[in-house]
Amino acid sequence: MKTSLKCMPCFMRMALHEAELACPGDEELHREIIVEWGRRLGEYDLGDSPPALARHLAELIREKTGCGDLYLEDKRQANARVQQLMPELRAMIEAERGKDGGDPLSLVLEMAVVGNYIDRGVDIDVDWEAELACVSQSLDPEIMAGLQSRLKKGADVLVLGDNTGEIVLDTLLVEELQRLGCHVTYAVRSHPVINDATMADAEAVGLTALCEVVESGVDTPGTVIERCFPDFVERMRQADVILSKGQGNFEALEGVWPGVFCAFKVKCERVARDAGLPLGSSALHITTNSSVCSCEMEK
């Protein structure tokens, strides 16, 4: 997905927020970062996806402040809070499993999508805990049925992770996929960017003890193919199913790598328009229109 001019206010807001996180109270430095970021934005190729451009902001913040993982404590707190909710969520899943015609996979995926609200890259104010407590199954039933038909015993499923907090809910998703007999590999970012999950987060929430966890290679808040390790691109090519979590992964892969099942919360008007879904809805979308990686899909 290309970057739109409508993305510019969000980029500027994020720059100010991260400048304030890195150096609280230093308004002169904040101004210097904002001015420089505005100048650089005017030079970047808007044909790139928003996550591809976002990495440049992380580089600028490090360059100007020397700060690395700005969201380290935020990520720890998000993971800890969701872990506290796990007993209740597991009870909900087992209740669904016990119903006639129950669909625990759909419920678990809905839960994991609600966790996508825990995103420090967008300016939203939503009670994700309240939504999680009374989660409804609203994902596109036709696409959900198509996904479930692909999740056969022995299927190689690659899950592209996104945010912290959300990654705790993804442990439930991995467990459900394994119940179906799928071999699951879970991918995390290779470098800290916004509050996205890294290998350290996967280890902290027990995901590495549950399934194979790999780094994608990216330093972007989305799976930007050009930033991936070559061997990770090969994993994508060989996977029977790619299940992508989060809006950033959708933005990075839409129009680039077709056939990916993208599960995310619609958190901006531009994405709502392109996905054809209401703002705030839970999306299950299949990427289309590969312009770069059609050759990558051949097995």
TrEMBL record:
It comes from the Bacteria. SUPFAM superfamilies: AF1104-like (SSF111321). Residues 4-280 form the Damage-control phosphatase ARMT1-like metal-binding domain. It holds the Pfam family ARMT1-like_dom. This is DUF89 family protein.
